[in-house]
Write a structure and sequence with these properties.
3-stranded antiparallel beta sheet; alpha+beta; 18% strand; 4-stranded mixed beta sheet; paralog of FGE (formylglycine-generating enzyme); globular
Amino acid sequence: MTIDESAAKQAAVEGMKWIPSGSFLMGSEKFYPEEAPVHEVELGGFWVDTHAVSNREYSQFVRKTGYVTVAERPLNPADYPGALPGELVPGALVFRQTRGPVDLRDWSQWWEYVHGACWKHPEGPGSSLESRPDHPVVHVAFEDAQAYAAWAGKRLPTEAEWEYAARGGLRGADFTWGDDMEPNGKPAANTWQGQFPWQNFVTDGYARTAPVGMFAPNGYGLYDMAGNVWEWTSDWYAARRDAQTSPCCGGRSRANGVEESYDPAQPKIRIPRKVVKGGSFLCAPNYCLRFRPAARSPQMIDTGMAHLGFRCIKDA
């Protein structure tokens, strides 16, 4: 540890933990192809929020700035040619549990666009934050997370910084707590137990989001680096990590000088995507075994969802 890093570590930052500089094995070759290849990454030290930004914290930001999130803004008819006026209503995607097994290739079976759904009304009109001030804020698009981070004097983590922090000092482990998915036979994070999206045994005690910090922290003292909500990073998505430096090879293109990324599974939807990490309360082994530090997923930057939040970092 350098002298400068030692001084940074001693200057405690409220609600954050110091992540020391070092190297780690990023990625995995045991699960999904977009997580490969495994490679060594070296990073400098930084501070990271101990938990995802909560509704209470985001409410403070909105009260002091008057910020309006993407899900609350009026829709521009020019962006939706052919749409009827009654369809151009602000809202967001809300999860609906199905009554039985469905085609897992069709996400529209369990996601519903709900008019009026936003961070203040997670399930739509009639829902509120009254009983969940300490739950992670959701329905935040990428720019909503960026705006909060800038206001707080912080920034969003890169994918490498997020994964390094999530591993908690464990080198190459499958999960943030080790290699056993359920240590001692019990869920170690807020995830989905049963057959997604119709059968949830709720063994972990939470059918949707849980208050932050309800499960044991990782080796760096960070909570919910697995499950609960996906978390934004600042990196553009590519289908493989080795493609991130090669725009021709599976995930990124350049249009009008602006870097874009897209999901190869949905090539016709050319909305840029960022990497999100950590998995959520909807992750189940039969569909999305992604509550692991190496796991990653593409998320359209203009869209927040009922299982997507964020946490911030601060440079030394």
